[in-house]
Amino acid sequence: MTAIAAVVIFVVVYVLIATERIHRTAAALAGAGLMMLIHAVDGRSAFFSEHSGVDWNVIFLLLGMMIIVGVLKQTGVFEYLAIWAAKRARGRPFRLMAMLVVITAVASALLDNVTTVLLVAPVTFLVCERLSLRVGPFLIAEVMASNIGGTATLVGDPPNIIIASRAGLTFNDFLVHLAPFVVLLLVVFVGLCRWLFRASFVYDAERAAGIMKLNEREAIRDHRLLWQSLSVLAVVIIAFLLHPVLHYEPAIVALLGAGLLVAATRVTVEEAIRDVEWATLVFFMGLFIMVGALVETGVIGQVSEAAASATQGRLGVTTMGMLWGSAGLSAIVDNIPYVATMSPIVADLVHASGPRGGVLWWALALGADLGGNATAVGASANVVALGIAARNNARISFWEFTKYGLVVTAVTVGLAMPYLWLRYLAG
Amino acid sequence: MHARDLVTDFPTVTVDTPAVEAARLLAERDLPGLIVVDRDGLPLCVLPGTQVLRLAVPRYCQDDPALARVVDESHADLFVRALGGRTVRECLPQQPRELPITDPDATVLEIAALMARTRSPLLAVVEGPRLLGAVTLQTLLHSVLEV
User: Fold this and answer.
1) Domain interval for residue B113
2) What is the domain count for chain B?
3) Nearest CA to CA, how far is A126 from chain B (Å)?
4) ipTM over 0.85 threshold
5) pLDDT (tens digit per residue) in A68-111
6) pTM of the predicted model, to two decimals?
7) Which of A61, A70, A386, B93 is the most exposed place for a label (fewest CB within 10 A)?
8) What residue of A is the nearest CA neighbor of B63?
9) What is the CATH number for B54?
10) Mean pLDDT for chain A overall
């Protein structure tokens, strides 16, 4: 009876999150509260259980990275890079888009996607205005590059953080298994941009000359803060890479990095935590408690058993189903709750699939991360970009985004099929 | 001392007034803001000059102040062109908030409190269905410092 009630609560909250009828944090908290009220989960398991409680590794990794990014964005380094790129492109629209796409994707591999889009969007408006170009195609390309680039690393996209924590995967695992493929995707994506947005590449020599007058050096006011922030970021990345030697969890590295940054710079604690998205962190907590309730009541176990018996001995089909199913669902609902829900099921499937079962984690990550590009509501970064465009009187409609998103998702997820097959399943 | 003792005539605009005209009024008459009135001449809103300015400043420079620094001087001089074709309606705050409007019997302390609360350098003074004029921050400070 408790299990049925837990499923009903879960489904209702999921619908509320997907339809955005109420704020997603409020929905997740209400769901977590109701799960506790019906005794589907208790305080002990919600707060202290490694398997069915709040995943503090995820929460603190996000917190640490949000603080680091909050300081880093005060340095003006992103504005510097984007204007430098525009000048290097000499105002040629496609070259400009290609450079912005690469910068966004690389930044997004280290920072979360929404932050990257928030950083790159304003400077895109400036550059496009000077070149008299429609900003919509550039913003769309950047958002998609951000979602693709974020797929490459453990810290690039919140679903990856959840997967890493639940699967016990390291930063290097993501670098080895996903980053090389993401580089290939990025090259293909730049080529796609040339075709998808071909009508937008109108070159005006006079306006291009105006771009050369922008002074990117002015974007950086505090050089000391810039070098301190970049140094700490470099130390954090090195610590992520040296996990096999140092044995510090990613969350610990991020928190220590955030602490070092605040201690070493003139940035106050208040300034450093100002940009932390507390609502997002609380949303994650509520979500983990809700999923934990399904674990505690045995619902996840039953779903896993059914999935395992239905796919037994057919790892290839299961992998492709996971890839496309995740992409399809992530196109419609936020990929964070989706991955949070799927992770315990995938963990059981991986366990049941034997030594080669780990491919399912990569199928989940690729499907969920790349599927976010399919529609205007597929990923948080998409929604944020459309909001920025509307505020700047450069509205991008749901369908304008989605018509490009479906093509990009079909191509990128389509390429993931042979990649997963050849690397993990063939032979 | 009451609002009726401090009130002076003040120019008004409507929501359909071009933003450029509003900006020119602010500049030529050295005003801290403008009173926006409806068809009946009653105040809809008190618009501080900075709100008109906000419409001219590109949104990307408001979102990211570093970008205002990278624009070269010759191009920066032209930013006010963005007001062209826009009206006062677009300067109005999107969220309803307390209006800096008072009645003629308000004391200087009431006027000062309302100005501070609404962060407005200008108060419209209304008596029944009639706009009497405005009390500016400058007038208020002159009067209280001379007492």
Assistant:
1) 3-145
2) 1
3) 7
4) no
5) 988 888 888 888 998 999 889 988 999 999 999 999 999 999 88
6) 0.82
7) B93
8) A122
9) 3.10.580.10
10) 89
